[in-house]
Design goal:
With about 110 residues, the protein is mainly α. Helix content is about 75%, strand content about 0%.
Amino acid sequence: MKKTLLILSLIFLISCSKNPIHSKDILPRGEFIDIIIDIQTAQSLLNMKADSTIDIRNIKLKAYSEEILKKHKVSEKQYNKSVDYYSADPDELKKIMGEVVKKLNKDVS
């Protein structure tokens, strides 16, 4: 989970421009949060398994991510566009990640 938060943090730090266009290819905020939560959960579960190499975990995470996107009926292209869109606004991305952390912590409690 820390790695993904770090990666997302780097993405929004690198992003400088805001994308004012909100097209049908951009996931609604709540749906985007739900997908990130599912991906974070999958990554955490994979990281707990000490019997796998990092390469195997990455392969499994990619497969799990594909299944998560199917579950949410979202294409990889749509998800990636949404990541780019929300990453263009660091304040919004920070709020989104804050909600993700809150919901994950709530689920753990």
